[in-house]
Structure formats: C-alpha cells, structure tokens
Amino acid sequence: MKFPSFLAAFSLLQVILLMPGLCARKTDSCGRSVSYPTLEERHSKDYCAMYDICGQRSDGKVLNCPYGSPSVKPDELFSAKIQSLCPSISGNVCCTEDQFDTLRAQVQQAIPFLVGCPACLRNFLNLFCELSCSPNQSLFINVTSVSEVNGNLTVDGIDFFVSDAFGEGLYDSCKEVKFGTMNTRAIEFIGAGATNFKEWFEFIGQKAPPGFPGSPYAIGFKSTVPDLSGMRLMNVSSYSCGDTSLGCSCGDCPSSPQCSNSEPPSPPKKDHCSITIGPVKVRCIDFELAIAYILLVLGLFGWALFRRQRERILASDREPLLKSIDEDEDEANLSNMQYDENFALEGHEVAAQLKNGAQLSIIQGYMSSFYRSYGIWVARNPTLVLCSSLAVVIVLCFGLIHIEVETRPEKLWVGHGSKVAEEKQFFDSHLAPFYRIEQLIIATLPDKTQGKSPSIVSDDNIQLLFEIQEKVDGIRANYSGLTVSLTDICLKPLGQDCATQSVLQYFKMDRENFENYGGVTHAEYCFQHYTSSDTCMSAFEAPLDPSTALGGFSGINYSEASAFVVTYPVNNAFDEAGNGNGKAVAWEKAFMQLVKEELLPLVQSRNLSLSFSSESSIEEELKRESTADIITIVVSYLVMFAYISITLGDAPRLSTFYISSKVLLGLSGVVLVMLSVLGSVGLFSAFGVKSTLIIIEVIPFLVLAVGVDNMCILVHAVKRQPLELPLEERISNALVEVGPSITLASLSEILAFAVGGFTPMPACRVFSLFAAVAVLLDFLLQVTAFVSLIVFDCLRAEDNRIDCFPCIKIPSSTEEPDEGMNSRGPGLLARYMQEIHAPFLGLWAVKVVVIAVFVAFALASIALSTRVESGLEQQIVLPRDSYLQGYFTNLSEYLRIGPPLYFVVKDYNYSLESRDTNKLCSINQCDSNSLLNEISRASFVPESSFIAKPAASWLDDFLVWLSPEAFGCCRKFTNGSYCPPDDQPPCCSADGGSCGLGGVCKDCTTCFRHSDLVNDRPSTEQFREKLPWFLNALPSADCAKGGHGAFTSSVDLNGYESGVIRASEFRTYHTPLNRQGDYVNALRAAREFSSRISDSLKMQIFPYSVFYIFFEQYLDIWRIALTNITIALGAIFIVCLVITSSLWISAIIILVLVMIVVDLMGVMAILGIQLNAVSVVNLVMSIGIAVEFCVHIANAFLVSNGNRDQRMKEALSTIGASVFSGITLTKLVGVIVLFFSRSELFVVYYFQMYLALVLVGFLHGLVFLPVVLSLMGPPATTIA
C-alpha cells in the first residue's frame, strides 16, 4: 500500500529555532544589510543572549528579540511546565511563556517520530531546551545578525556552540530510530538523511524562505569557541540509546548490549564447494565425476582387453569346435531367414514358442494367445469392431458440449491446497486484497555510440508525462450502463486523490504547478528532499519515494534515471468467483485501448519507448494465445498425415501405386488420433474438469506422435507376413509378433503420463491426466479400429481397388495382384540395419567407444543438471508477439524497488496479561528478539534475507500515539470522545485557516497520564477502546502517527473485542527481484525467517507477498521432480517385469531410461531451460515416450536365440527399421512443427525438450541399448 504523509512539519526542528541572541550586523525587513552599531555583548552565567518575541515574518513565524538580559525566575506553574518538557532546566530561565509555548507546539511534531526511543527523544529535547530556555544561554549562543521587522529588531542569525561529544551522542542515539509508517529511519524526515551530526546540524541551521518549513533565521553550529570570548560549549550530558533507564529497542538501537547478544542474521549462502587446479576453478561435483569417469573408462578398457585376449585363446584352442558351431549357426540363420513362412505354416497351437525356439514368459504366452485369437476374430468381424469402438469414442466426444477453458493464472499455476493459496485467502478475507496494478514504463532509447540510455528527467519529458496523464484521466469506460473513470476505482489512502505513483506528484499532479514550482529543477530537488519538503508532498498527502516513480538509475542518483515508471493502484475486490472487479476490468480494457492507439504512437514520436501492462493483461493475452496456433495445429496434422501415408505404403511402383499407397489408411489413423484426443477432453469436460490452452495445443501433437508409432509397427508387422497365409493368419501373426511390445510400450506411456497427475500445478496435472486418457483411448482404437482398417485395406488391395476411391475397381493384370500389405522384400532401411548398422555395433572397438561416450555424456549431464535453475519466466508463457514481452523485460531492467512483503500475525492477544505485545513491537521495553526487531535486523543483510527495510508497524505507532509524551496525538474532549490534533478540524478550520489555541479543542487533554498506564502499556480495556481511534486518526503535522491510510487495512477488527486480534500485518519490502531465482529465494528466505520467529515467539506468523502464490511450487520442485521420476520408473519397471518375467531385461531397460532422463536434464542446462511443473511433467512423460525406443528392441532380443551378438543383430534386423521410421521419424515430424508455434512456452518446453528427447532416445535405443544387450544382456531361454 502507499502511505500517507504528514510532511508539512517534518522539518520542524528548523521551525523550532525561534530563539534569542545578540548581533554584530543587521538587515532590514526586506533582507537588505544595513549598518548598525554593535550591541553590548555579555557572555556569562545566568545571562540570556535573547529574550522574548519581538516580531514575526510574513508567513507568521515568530522572531525573537536580540537583546541580552539576566535570566528570569519563573513562577511555580511555569516552572512545572518547563520541567515537564525540559527536566534538565531548573531555577531561572531565558524564555517567556509565549516562547515556551511556541517551543512546545513545535517539538510536539517531532515527538511522535522519536518517542519510541526515550534516549533519542531526551537528547533531542535537551538540545532545543538548552537553546530556548537555558539560564546560561549567553555562554553558548551568540547573535550574529539582526533584522528589522515593523520597527523592531529581531534575530536573523545566531551561532550555537555545541560540543562534538553531545552532537555525536545525539546523532548516535537517533540514527537508527525507525519511522515505521514509511519503512524508513526517522532521521530521513527530521534530518534529511544525515550521515553524521554535522550534516544534521547543517540541515537544522538552514534558513527557510517565507512560506517554506524550516528555521526563520540561520543557525551556525560551532564546535570551538573564540578565544577570550568568555563563552563555552553547550555540553549537557547525552544518553546512549542503550542506557538502562532510557533504553531503546533493538530495532532502534542495534548496538545496545542487550541486542549485541542476539543471534546475528544468517550470513549469505556460500558458493558451492570448488577446487582450484592451477588457474582453473572447478566445482567439487564436476571434479568427482571426472575422476569417476576416468576410473570407469580405464576399467572398461581393461575389461575389453581381457575379454579380447580370452577370446583369442579360446579361438586357438577350440577352432574345430567353433567351426562346427559356425556351421550350425549358418543353418540357424538360414532357418531364421525362412522364419516367417515356416512359423506361420506350423499353426498357432504353440502359443508359448517363437521362431528360434525361445521360451516366452507366462504373461507373454497369455498375451500371444490372446492376440492370436483376437486377431482372427477382428479379421473375421472388422465392421463390428470398427463401429463399436468408434461408437464408444463418439459418445465420449459428446462431453465437449460442456467444455470450458481455464485462463485465470492463479487457477492454472497454483495447486489446490497450496499453503500460500490458503495464506492469500486468509490475507484477502481478513485484511484487504492486494491492489490491482496498471503500469506504464516510459524510457529513453540507448545511445547508438555509447550504448547507454540518457536521462529521461527533462522539461519536455515531464510535459509529455502531463499530456499522457490528461489522456488517462479522460478515460471513460462503460460497465453495465455506468461510466467508470480512474477516480472511481483508484486507491485513495487519504482524501479524494488517487495514490498514483508518478513524478508528477511532485507538482501535485497539476500542470500549472510545473512552471510555478520551477520545472525540472523542482523535481530534482524533490528527489533528494521528498521526505522533508512540503512542496514535494504528493497530491494524496504522502511523500513519494522517487525509487517508485523512476527507473534505470544507480544508487540514489535519481537524476540519471532513464525511465519514468507510472503506476496506477486500483482497488481490488475480494471475490472467490472473480466477479467483483467488473468496473476495474472495464476501465482496464479502455486503458489498454488508449495506450495502444494513442499513447504508444505519441511516446514513440518523441524517440522514447513505452511498455505497459494492466492487472488483466496476462489473462487476456492467454486467451488470445488460444487461437494463435490454430494454423500450426492444422499444418502439423497435414504433415503427419502425409508422412504416415508415405511410411505405411510400399516402395512406389508406378504401375501399382494407386493400389499399394496407404493414403486412406493414413488419413484414418490421423482421424483416430484426433478422436482419442477429443474423447479424452470430452470425458473430463463431462465431469466438469476445465481444459487449458496447453491441452488444446500440445496434446494433439503428443498423442499424434505417440499413436503413429504403433500404427507403423502394426502395418509393418502385417507386411512381413508370408503371402501364402490367409488374411486371418497374417493379422493374427502380426498381432502376436508386436502386440505384447505395443502393449508394454503403451502401458508404460500411460503410467508415466498419469504420474504427472501428482504434480501440484493444476495446468500440468490436468494436462497429464488428459494425456494419459488420450493415449489410453488411442491405444484401444489402434488395436480395435485401426486393426479393422488394416483388414479393410488388405481386402481393398487384394481386390485391386484404388486407394482413395475404394469403390473403383481395376481389372487384374498379369503382374502380381497382391500388392499393398503383401510386399515381402526388405526395404532400404531394413537392409541398412541388417547389413551395416548391426554388424558395425558388433565390433569390439565400437562397443568400447559407444559405452565410453554415452557414459561420459551421462556423467556430464549429472554435473550440468545441478546448474538447472527453478522457475518459469513469465515471458515464456505468453505469445512471442505479446506487448507484455517488452514490459517484463523493462520491469527487470528499470525497477529499483521490490514487491511489498507482509508479515501476518494470527490471533494476537493484546490483553495486558499476555506478553504478545512485547513479542511483536520494537519500541522501548519490547523484547530484543521481537518480530519487528528481528525484521529490522534481517534488513541489515538484504543479500540473504531479501528484506530491504524495517517493517512499518501499526503496533509501534499505536503505542507511541497513546504515549503521554506524544501529547498532540491521543487526545479526548471533556466528554471522553476523540479530540483530533490542533491542526485538524474541528480544532482548525477545514479551509486551512489559522489554528488557535482558544478554539473548540482548548480543553482537550491527553488520553492518558503515565500513572494510567502499566509500564507504558495500555490495559486491555484501554487498548480495545483506543485502537479504532488510532486507525481512524488522520496524520498531520501535529501528530504524524495517525493510523488512517497507512494502517487502515493492517488490522482485522472483526471480533477484536474478545482481546484477540485475528489478523494483523506488518509491512516491509523485498529487495529488487529480477530473476526467477531471486523470487524463489526471496520466498524461501521469508518462509525460513517466519518459521524461525514463530518457533521462537510461540506465535502464528507467516509471510505474504503478491507473487508468492506463483512461486511456492519451486521451493521443493526438485523433490517433486525426483519423486515423480522415481514413481514413473518404478511403475514401468513393474510393468516390464510382469510382462517379460525377466528381472535382467527390466533392469537394463530402466538403466537406459535413467540415462535418457539424465541426458535430457543435461540438455536442459545447456539450453537454459528451467525446472518447473511443465518441465517436470515433460521429464516424467519422456520416460513413457522413451520406453518405445527401448522396449521393442529389448523384446526382440529377449525372444531371439543364439549368443548375445547374434541376438542383438537379429533384434536390430527385425525391429530396428520400424523403430527408426515408425517411432523416431514420426516423433521428429510431429515435434518439428512445434517450432512454428507463436507461443514461446511450446517452443522451449515442447519443441526443444521433445526434440532433445527424440534424438537422445533414438541414440540410446538404436545405439547404446544394442551394445549393452550384446555385452550383458540376459541369456536366451529355449525349449528343450
């Protein structure tokens, strides 16, 4: 929230100095110097340097008489009044009652800033008490100039001789005192941010022009006295802020002994362990993995040499036996070449035996038996199977009439039951929802030669800002027949002015004030004096920190800023359904239209850049994205259709092309994939589950890429069957051959996708479940509808009917009529696998190199994976051409202030018997380890705590507001009702007229005397009665601690009468957060801090910031990722083990899958892809997809016979071509289309990651896995 200001009196110490003196020169009432005889000077004890009031300036500030006189003994009542404010002064005094009343009236403006630290307040009051009323005033005060006002001489300048010891003591006791309302130090307001006592004194001593706050005459603070002058330094004892009797809190006095024993803030986290080797510095994990790899490679080479030597010995000793074995193997190979024909003719009674006599597992035997029977039945009843399967899916598609698309970011990216979501709901319902943000960033363009952006702070640019503001103020939106303007919806902490954060606030948002105040010079003045100058106060009566309205500067060099940041805070309604902000949304749409149509061309015409955003921008851009990639989707399906048609068909022969082509079959397969996606979406929509844009745009690609694989494998398996067999047998044998591996691959994919349902992010969880059901439906359609379509296509080809026009039949020719599924000759790819690829991998040197290279990449990927950052850049979620892309870039580049941070306290017991108050507050008598003291301490190490400032504390301000010392704050009329400060109505006229002491508030008294309080703490009843007074009290010069505006929504008063405040917040700021890692680390640091404090104080405290809800998932994203990956691998291992009954082959498959996932994470690090729910789901699903690259090869190896090398070569020869063309290339074609998506999210997380998966999976499935199987695959099991 933006905070009120009461700055008209923040330079009050300057006004306080209305004191006495003698002079050596004179100026007239117009300020001109005139000659004047030197008055008699006397500097002695009990003598005054100036006494009484002799006039006043044109702005009403009183001026003292420059005449010395003996000190005066006050009457008893006056003496008591002086003692109440200045206990160090007793006896005679050098001030009249009018002077003392002026002093008291002015210091009461400073007291609320300092009363929380009694030592600072006492030192501060002593300085001005000695200056105003000390009986020995002449000893350290010397009048240096006088002026004539209405014929009377008045003081125009003095020298004040103060010892360095007192100055240092005063400054040291006050330098860390906080002004909680503004999250800053009080010295920023009462000392213009002085860094030592000399700078503070110089600020106090400046003479203010008429009408400006400050001293009416100049004061020169001196630390040495002239020789022989008889003067001495004012050296009243100063109190340390750690004094036992006047001690301050740890937040106001970190150096006090009781605070020095407190636990220091945690230091910044150290860098990762590293080792220095010469000039090179490497991380420990990299070094360890390098050593492990070297040892592994050495062991591998040693083992390879040993095996080669052993084989040579065996070869020389058993050459006759090996020759015999070779002859047997030749016969076996010949038998293998004749497998298709022989096996098919044997019949299907031997369900548990394959071509080489390999023994199948029990599950595989049952599956083979099922697929054999099922294949025959489908071939006999293709129409029934096709119609019934399509009918089921079409019924599911009817659920699409209930489809809804979720675009609200908080519903997409925040998990149900999220801790932060619960905390946000608590914050919004008990305190107030965080306001909506509408923002403009106007920046200068970088210089083409130097590359540096020039300053934007110029007269012309500020005038441009006024022009922009006038157009924004002129926006009139329509909402249900009502006209909505900015003033109707904007945040108004005080009065009727919007809390717009803009440089124009230094001119009260009024163009006429621009010239009157001095143009850009005034703005630059306000950059440094925004806390202390009345003319710099904003139109909404608060100081405007320039860091909130400027960007692109370093340190506090605001004049070098290269950007204006204009922020319009808009009230936010708490509404679970999201319908309470209709007016704001309507205005935001009109605002965005104005920016795009008028403001953007206007700013660009001035050679400036403009980026912009509204609260609803992200949601609107996500909606726009839903239609952005329709063309991409259509093109992808067309490309896939074309590829399938070519892949499924036979080698083109011009004479029979119209028969052997598979265009209609390919088209049917694509339609089945589309139906499976629609069926999945329809099923979930029927149950009220909303879809997301990721589902609409990505699942079609994903299921298409997965589904086409099995289509190709099925068609190729049918084409490998002997022509002599009837169609029923060919379909049956094909299903027996590839059915188990297809089932294994599909089950693995479904399980892997379903595991993504454990991801907490709703968008990714729903995506995973939709994908799992879509893949399941696609698998069922493949083994039902698509098999039926294969039967129809075979019948079509056998009947010489044209592919795309099956009703047209051509006459039979003398050529072989059975084309289509009946081509038996191996293709080019199959010949490559059999004659080149497999023999090449069988070479020992190649095996060693393959193992070494793949293990090297796996170990390197492990090292790289530790560099993967968590997060999801907002720009990636949006379309590439979104205007928000530039906005988020500029936000990181120019913003110099972090997001607000709230520490929320639940169930605060404010009763006098409870210690909760002292556990929370940070003024005197509060616990040293209180919440606010710990926040202040944490702000000293922002690099690790991410806390930029001490917290604004309603509790501290309330206790100070109640304090009898703050006599201008908590006051009451004689009837006991609230009495406002003297400078507010009804004590002061509402039109800004004079405020006299004799008005309706003349009888007001402070709420309490010290005797009414218990250890300066209110009783339970006093707390309960006065808290609403405080929260409704307007801040002003006489009492800057009023809580209205600053703390209006900081306390939940519902049910507080019971003595317990259910919710209250203490507000501070995070440091500027530019990277996703900064946001995650800031949330983690705040969580750890709150947890530690909650345990220490035994209170319920949690941190809240508006961005937490989107970043909570990243706190344990690595745990989520590893857990889901482990579950997916475990599920696939069980499926493999059950189906293959081979622990050995299942372990090898899992090993390869682990390496694929690890390599994929290494690629993520190389490409800069972050770890988030999207990439976690991708990693989990990549396991299911990668199974296809492995399981077919492994299954073919398992059911083959011979030694390991022979079985590896046979597996590649049999199924390798199908894996490459039917799995690798189909996925490659489907993925490449994603590159043309307009959404960066799909390009990064789907194109790049899935392309990497396809390449890595292909290499592991067709290179690494065959080598591993040839070296350590399970032995063949044969039937005796």
TrEMBL record:
What is the membrane topology listed in the Swiss-Prot or TrEMBL record? Answer: Multi-pass membrane protein
Chief localization: membrane
| SUPFAM superfamilies tied to this protein | Multidrug efflux transporter AcrB transmembrane domain (SSF82866)
For whether the record's keyword set contains Methyltransferase, the answer is: no
- Signal peptide start-end: 1-24
Give the similarity note: Belongs to the patched family.
This protein's superkingdom? Eukaryota
Lineage, uppermost ranks: Eukaryota, Viridiplantae, Streptophyta, Embryophyta, Tracheophyta
InterPro entries for the chain: HMGCR/SNAP/NPC1-like_SSD (IPR053958), NPC1-like (IPR004765), NPC1_MLD (IPR053956), NPC1_N (IPR032190), SSD (IPR000731)
Disulfide bond as a keyword of this entry, yes or no, is yes
Q: Where is the SSD domain?
A: 629-792
Q: Which residues cross the membrane?
A: 289-306, 630-651, 663-687, 693-713, 767-792, 841-864, 1117-1140, 1147-1169, 1175-1199, 1211-1237, 1249-1272
What organism does the UniProt record list as the source? Hibiscus sabdariffa (roselle)
List UniProt keywords, sorted A-Z.
Cholesterol metabolism, Disulfide bond, Glycoprotein, Lipid metabolism, Membrane, Signal, Steroid metabolism, Sterol metabolism, Transmembrane, Transmembrane helix, Transport
Intracellular or extracellular location(s): Endomembrane system
Q: Give the protein name, as stated in the record.
A: SSD domain-containing protein
